[in-house]
Specification:
Blueprint lengths: L6 H13 L1 H7 L25 E5 H7 L4 H5 L5 E3 L9 E3 L7 E5 L2 E2 L21 E6 L3 H4 L6 E6 L14 E11 L5 E10 L3 E12 L3 E10 L2 E7 L5 E14 L2 E15 L6 E16 L6 E19 L2 E19 L5 E17 L7 E16 L3 E18 L9 E5 L2 E12 L2 E12 L3 H5 L1 E4 L4 E4 L7 E14 L2 E27 L7 E26 L3 E16 L13 E10 L2 E10 L16 E14 L2 E10 L13 H4 L10 E9 L1
Length: about 675
């Protein structure tokens, strides 16, 4: 496939950035320190959040960064991964995945086909990400029913929101180079920003190539009729590139900015030895805000994005099924003037996308989904803390246009009116202590494939059949948390329960099989989308103990979580749920040096609906990392090394569909050493 950013261009840009260091330093004024806050969970920008949220940035994000967004966040309290091999995975939050987890780009809609199928990757590569915010629990109040499980906001600063320099102007940048042994990864990226107090420009580009991923056991791979055995995941190589240009102009009371970005990826689908996906996505965004208004409104913020996504599934050199998803997202938020002790925002959101799949594995028809919503979020400040309340009303229209090449698809239209409501409280119970509680009722409209699917879905090894009679998915959610902090010591714990009145599940039809493709005799089990009562309960906790304070510090970081998910109608466990997990890490820092070593232990998962299919054994993964930061002229160099799975443990993910449908083709990666350099101005 043709690349938008040739490898040589990224390498040249990397060297150019390093060469700019000395000359840029003289023109650059001091960069103001902008306060980083978690904005995903609270549009008012306050630091104290009622909803449980976590932010990853800087060195912390760099050291946990993997080749996919799902694997980058896997292991965070309450977060696991769909893991369809090393090239495609989405985050799972509190046992919920797919269209119950909303992935955002800078707070706006992010459109691809990753929620449609596990083998479709997210169009966001961790090498280009500046910060990730994870909101656990019901985020539907602000972002719709597709966020009932949580929200992942990927932030890249392609549209700057604040000036970074004074009147004299300046330039800054960052370059990344990395090598890894387990998959022969070669990654590089560059980011350059410049401007003054009235404008800011942004350019970034990245490129990453990997080969087949090393694992601790020999696996069979069949190509051109010949079978070989190697300690590699067959067909797990990838080639990813992309980049963006963007900028903003700043006014005395606001800004207006725009960006254009592209993403290209070619990767193997590990369930099929000779199938690759060639993906492309182009996104255009416009954003602006007016602040310090007088009258009933204090500020108005608007966002608009348009995405053109498509990928082709190749069988060998032959083009197969072609998937396309084109759409737009518009979001408008207005913060009103304080009404006594009430502070809040009112908002409107409109989304529209057209989906099509053409080819032998087109298991869903051509369709269009249109959605509009109004929402309100309010906070009431009190002497002991604060209360939050709000609601969201949506109108969703899902249209099936059939498919001129597939007679079994017929046109149909479904309309839904979801409504979601939430109430939260934060109590400053004692110095250093905060208690939180969230109660929410959420409704989600069925997706197009849940309503109208009718065809072979190789990624799930199933013949999927939709149900046009599905009603809105309804759930009640309760979250209770406590947090404590004193100096270098801290602790957080959250417990939750989510009860679904009519959870949409993909259930196997006993004794029924369908042909995988027309004219072939290879049958697939039939699965139908049905609704059932379901319950998710769990606990997640994290903490830090400062063992040593002074010129050097030593910390013990602790983490753990557990989630149980049950189909209340059948009494059976819901599939692809991670087992209970505990982990600990020792973190040492002294001057320019840093190091850590730790482990994550995952229990055996025996609560599976089709035992022993999908069951996994317990395992413990050890990891270590080291960093060294040094000044080199105007640049700051960060050298780092990370060793993953240092005991080379064989392990399988309980939350991956491959563990059930393609065992043992895709274990977790084996031992891997990654070396990298990050240079910043």
């Amino acid at each position: 496939m043709k690349k938008s950013f040739p490898r040589g261009a990224v390498s040249t840009a990397t060297l150019t950035l390093l060469a700019l260091g000395c000359t840029a330093a003289q023109a650059q004024t001091a960069t103001p320190s902008l306060k980083e806050i978690t904005v995903t969970g609270n549009p008012l920008g306050t630091a104290d959040l009622i909803a449980p949220a976590t932010r990853y940035s800087g060195t912390g994000l760099l050291l946990r960064s993997k080749t996919t967004l799902g694997e980058t966040l896997d292991g965070a309290p309450g977060v696991s991964s769909t893991y369809y091999g090393p090239n495609a995975s989405r985050p799972i939050i509190r046992g919920l995945d797919g269209d119950r987890i909303r992935i955002l780009a800078n707070g706006g809609g992010s459109l691809d086909a990753s929620s449609l199928s596990y083998d479709h990757s997210v169009t966001s590569d961790p090498i280009s990400i500046e910060r990730i915010e994870v909101l656990r629990g019901p985020g539907a109040l602000l972002y719709g029913g597709s966020a009932v499980g949580g929200v992942v906001n990927v932030i890249d600063n392609r549209i700057p929101r604040e000036p970074q320099w004074g009147e004299k102007g300046g330039i800054s940048g960052k370059a990344d180079l990395s090598l890894a042994s387990g998959n022969s990864e070669r990654g590089k990226g560059v980011l350059i920003e410049g401007g003054n107090h009235r404008y800011s420009l942004h350019v970034d580009a990245f490129d990453r190539q990997t080969r087949a991923v090393r694992v601790p056991v020999g696996l069979a791979c069949t190509r051109d009729g010949a079978t070989t055995i190697a300690r590699r995941i067959c067909n797990s190589a990838s080639d990813v590139s992309g980049g963006a240009v963007g900028g903003a102009v700043f006014f005395d009371s606001g800004y207006l900015g725009a960006s254009a970005s592209t993403y290209r990826s070619t990767y193997g689908t590990v369930a099929e030895d000779e199938v690759t996906i060639g993906m492309k996505s182009d996104r255009y965004a416009l954003e602006g805000e007016i602040r310090n208004l007088s009258g009933p409104l204090e500020s108005i913020k608007g966002q608009y994005s348009q995405t053109d996504y498509g990928h082709t599934e190749f069988e060998g050199a032959t083009a197969g099924t072609v998937f396309k998803n084109k759409g737009s997202d518009f979001r408008l938020e207005a913060r009103h003037a304080k009404l006594g002790d009430f502070d809040g925002v009112l908002g409107f959101q409109a989304e529209s996308n057209r989906f099509s799949a053409d080819g032998a594995e087109a298991f869903a028809p051509h369709s269009k989904t249109s959605q509009s919503a109004v929402f309100a979020y309010e906070e009431l400040g009190t002497g002991w803390g604060k209360l939050s309340l709000g609601g969201r009303l949506e109108s969703v229209k899902v249209e099936s246009f059939g498919n001129p090449q597939v007679a079994r698809f017929t046109p149909a239209t479904k309309d839904f009116k979801p409504g979601s409501y939430a109430l939260g409280a934060l109590w400053n119970a004692a110095p250093g202590w905060q208690l939180t509680s969230n109660l929410a009722y959420t409704e989600r409209a069925p997706k197009d494939y849940e309503l109208f699917a009718d065809g072979p879905h190789i990624a799930t090894a199933a013949y999927e059949v939709g149900n046009a009679n599905l009603s809105k998915e309804q759930s009640g959610n309760l979250d209770v948390g406590a947090a404590w902090k004193s100096g270098g010591h801290s602790f957080k714990v959250n417990s939750y329960v989510s009860r679904f009145k009519n959870y949409i599940a993909l259930n196997q039809t006993p004794g029924v099989t369908r042909n995988a493709k027309d004219g072939e005799v290879n049958p697939l089990a039939e699965f139908r989308y049905e609704q059932a009562r379901a319950r998710f309960t769990g606990i997640e906790a994290s903490g830090n103990i400062r063992l040593r304070e002074g010129a050097s510090t030593l910390d013990l970081a602790l983490r753990g979580d557990v989630v149980r998910a049950t189909n209340l109608d059948s009494g059976q466990p819901l599939p692809r749920i991670a087992p209970w997990r505990v982990g600990a890490s020792l973190l040492w820092a002294s001057g320019p040096w840093g190091a850590n070593i730790g482990f994550d232990h995952l229990a055996a998962q025996k609560r599976v609906s089709a035992s022993p299919v999908g069951a996994t054994a317990a395992y413990t993964l050890w990891n270590a990392a080291a960093t060294y930061r040094v000044k080199a002229g105007a640049a700051t160099l960060l050298w780092y090394a990370r060793l993953d799975n240092l005991t080379d443990k064989l392990a399988y993910s309980a939350s991956s569909v491959l563990t059930s449908t393609a065992f043992p083709k895709a274990p977790l990666p084996g031992r891997s050493l990654k070396l990298g350099l990050q240079a910043s101005l």
